[in-house]
């Protein structure tokens, strides 16, 4: 388990954020995660959703195995939506959507030393998430995506820009259809990082694809 970082370190963790479950992989997810870590991801979210997703004990055991890989390499391990799993695994945090419990209630159950990310699609949702105690915001979908069947309407970088114009200073990560050739506008708009699924997990050479994104995001953060 990684102790909850301060806001500066959360920004650094968000730079290259892999979101993945078994349904997103063409190889065993343990292999994909190991290769992605070797390539330079900075944060990992276990998201086991979609057609063919694991359930029950198999779901728990996969989360446990992926968490151990993250622990070995000191990569924070975040669980998507499932607070019971996050508690059972003593995960480093959780990421929730607008249809899930507010961050304030999650914090009371999960603990005050955990990271809580909240998806937001506009300034109103972002402000509410911050009021509820979110540590960072996931903004999207930035571009069209096939990785999430329940994705909201594509919004580009407009919400990220709006958040910066309203001087909302909580760390922000862009998500949705992002890859190496369209990531730059997200950083230009003011995001602290990108969250990707298929741009890493769906690639033939996961480590190489991750290295490319790692090099790119490092450059964009500096600029």
UniProtKB/TrEMBL annotation:
The reaction(s) this protein catalyses: 2-(2-carboxy-4-methylthiazol-5-yl)ethyl phosphate + 4-amino-2-methyl-5-(diphosphooxymethyl)pyrimidine + 2 H(+) = thiamine phosphate + CO2 + diphosphate; 2-[(2R,5Z)-2-carboxy-4-methylthiazol-5(2H)-ylidene]ethyl phosphate + 4-amino-2-methyl-5-(diphosphooxymethyl)pyrimidine + 2 H(+) = thiamine phosphate + CO2 + diphosphate; 4-methyl-5-(2-phosphooxyethyl)-thiazole + 4-amino-2-methyl-5-(diphosphooxymethyl)pyrimidine + H(+) = thiamine phosphate + diphosphate
Residue numbers binding Mg(2+): 81, 100
Positions with a binding annotation for 4-amino-2-methyl-5-(diphosphooxymethyl)pyrimidine: 45-49, 80, 119, 148
Keyword Metal-binding set for record: yes
Spans through the membrane: none
Gene3D superfamilies listed in its UniProt record: Aldolase class I (3.20.20.70)
Keywords recorded for this protein, A-Z: Magnesium, Metal-binding, Thiamine biosynthesis, Transferase
Pathway assigned to this chain's UniProt record: Cofactor biosynthesis; thiamine diphosphate biosynthesis; thiamine phosphate from 4-amino-2-methyl-5-diphosphomethylpyrimidine and 4-methyl-5-(2-phosphoethyl)-thiazole: step 1/1
EC number(s) stated in the UniProt entry for this protein: 2.5.1.3
Record's keyword annotation contains ATP-binding: no
Name of a matching Pfam family: TMP-TENI
Residues given in the record as 2-[(2R,5Z)-2-carboxy-4-methylthiazol-5(2H)-ylidene]ethyl phosphate binding sites: 145-147, 177, 197-198
Function: Condenses 4-methyl-5-(beta-hydroxyethyl)thiazole monophosphate (THZ-P) and 2-methyl-4-amino-5-hydroxymethyl pyrimidine pyrophosphate (HMP-PP) to form thiamine monophosphate (TMP).
Family assignment from sequence similarity: Belongs to the thiamine-phosphate synthase family.
Protein name: Thiamine-phosphate synthase
Organism (species): Paenibacillus nicotianae
């Amino acid at each position: 388990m990684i102790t909850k970082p301060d806001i500066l370190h959360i920004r650094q963790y968000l730079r290259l954020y892999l979101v993945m479950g078994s349904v997103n992989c063409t190889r065993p997810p343990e292999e994909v995660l190991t290769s992605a870590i070797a390539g330079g991801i900075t944060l990992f979210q276990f998201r086991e959703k979609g057609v063919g997703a694991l359930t029950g004990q198999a779901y728990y055991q996969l989360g446990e195995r992926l968490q151990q890989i993250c622990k070995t390499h000191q990569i924070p391990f975040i669980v998507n939506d499932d607070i019971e799993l996050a508690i059972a695994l003593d995960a480093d945090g959780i990421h929730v959507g607008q249809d899930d419990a507010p961050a304030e209630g999650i914090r009371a159950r999960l603990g005050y030393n955990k990271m809580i990310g909240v998806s937001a699609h506009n300034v109103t949702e972002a402000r509410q998430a911050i009021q509820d105690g979110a540590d960072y915001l996931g903004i999207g979908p930035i571009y069209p995506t096939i990785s999430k069947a329940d994705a909201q309407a594509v919004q580009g970088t407009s919400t990220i820009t709006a958040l910066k114009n309203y001087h909302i200073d909580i760390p922000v990560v862009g998500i949705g259809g992002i890859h190496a050739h369209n990531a730059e506008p997200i950083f230009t708009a003011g995001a602290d990082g990108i969250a990707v699924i298929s741009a890493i997990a769906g690639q033939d050479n996961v480590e190489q694809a991750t290295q490319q994104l790692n090099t790119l995001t490092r450059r964009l953060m500096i600029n």
